[in-house]
Amino acid sequence: MEQDAYYYYAEETVPYYENDAYTFRRITTQNTVIDKLAAIAKEEVGILEEADEGAREAGRLSEGALAYVIDEADGGWLFVESGDVRGFVQASALDTSGSVQARVSETGEAEFATAKEEIKPEDNRATYYTLTSIKEGTKYNEIREKILELALSCVGNPYVWGGTSLTHGADCSGFVQTLYRTFGYSLPRVADAQSRVGTQIPVSDAAPGDLIFFARNGYVYHVAMYAGDGKTVEAYSSNYGIITKELSDREAVWATRIIED
C-alpha cells in the first residue's frame, strides 16, 4: 500500500515583485488563463503602475475603451489588462455590469478601443503583479533565443562577399542562411529569394530572430536579423563586418517570420 507523501515548498524570503528571477522566463507551471470579465471605462482614466493615485501611468483608457478585470486589490482598486497594458484602475471608473458583458459578447471585442500604452510592458512594474491573464501566454521558444545568441556571438567577425561562414566571413544572406541552417531551417542563398520564405509581417511586428528585408526600386538587396529593442544583427559590409546597429526604417520593407512560436 502506498504511503501518504508529504512535500515541502520553498519559503518566500522576498516579495515576488522584488525578485528579479520571477520573470526570468515569463513562464510558469501554473494555469494562468482566466475567464473574461469585461470592463468599459466610464470616462478617460489612467491605468496605474501601482494601486496608488500618485503612481506612474502605464497606459490610458479613453471613455468607452475596453479592459478586462484580472484581480481585485485593496482600497477599491481593480487590476486590469487592456491590450498589452496592465495595471490598476479604481473600480468606480469602470462599468462591469451584465449589460457590458452582453454588449462586448454581441459586438465583439475587436470593435472596442483598448488602452494607449505609455510604458513598455517590460518597464511596467505592474505587468507581472500576477501571471494570470485573459490571453494564452506566449510559448517560450528556445530556438528563437538560441539562434539570436549565436548571431550575436558572431559580432566582430568579417564580412565576405559570397561567404557563408560564421567565423571566417559571410555576406548578409549567407550569414542568416547559415544561422538558420544550424537550427534545421532551410533558406535560399540570396536575400531576394529569402524574402519570400516564411510569414511576411510588418517590420513593426518583428520579434527577435525574425528577418528584416531592405529594398530599393523594388529589389531586395539586404537582409538583417532583428535583435530586439530596435536593433539588428547583420553582416553589414566589408568595412564593418558583422555588427549590431539601430534598425533603419528608411528602406526596410517587411519582415518575415521563419520560427513560429
Description:
- With 261 residues, the chain is α+β, with helices and mostly antiparallel strands.
- It has two domains: 16-22 and 33-123, Roll (SH3 type barrels); 142-257, endopeptidase fold (from Nostoc punctiforme), CATH 3.90.1720.
- The chain contains four helices and 16 strands.
- The chain has a six-stranded antiparallel sheet with strand order 11-16-12-13-14-15. The protein has a five-stranded antiparallel sheet with strand order 6-5-4-1-7. The chain has a three-stranded antiparallel sheet with strand order 2-3-8, with no helix packed on it.
- Strand 12 and strand 13 (219-228) form a beta hairpin.
Q: Going across the biggest sheet, name each strand in turn.
A: 11-16-12-13-14-15
For the termini, the CA-CA separation is 44 Å
Instruction: List the uncertain runs.
Output: 1-7, 22-30
Largest sheet: 6 strands, antiparallel
- Taken together, the total number of domains comes to 2
What fraction strand?
A: 25-35%
Helix content: 10-25%
- State the secondary-structure class: alpha+beta
List the helices and strands and how they pair.
Layout: E1 38-41, E2 45-48, E3 57-61, E4 66-73, E5 77-82, E6 85-90, E7 94-95, H1 98-107, E8 116-117, H2 142-153, E9 164-165, E10 169-170, H3 172-182, H4 191-194, E11 199-201, E12 211-216, E13 219-228, E14 231-237, E15 241-246, E16 252-257
Antiparallel strand pairs: 1-4, 1-7, 2-3, 3-8, 4-5, 5-6, 9-10, 11-16, 12-13, 12-16, 13-14, 14-15
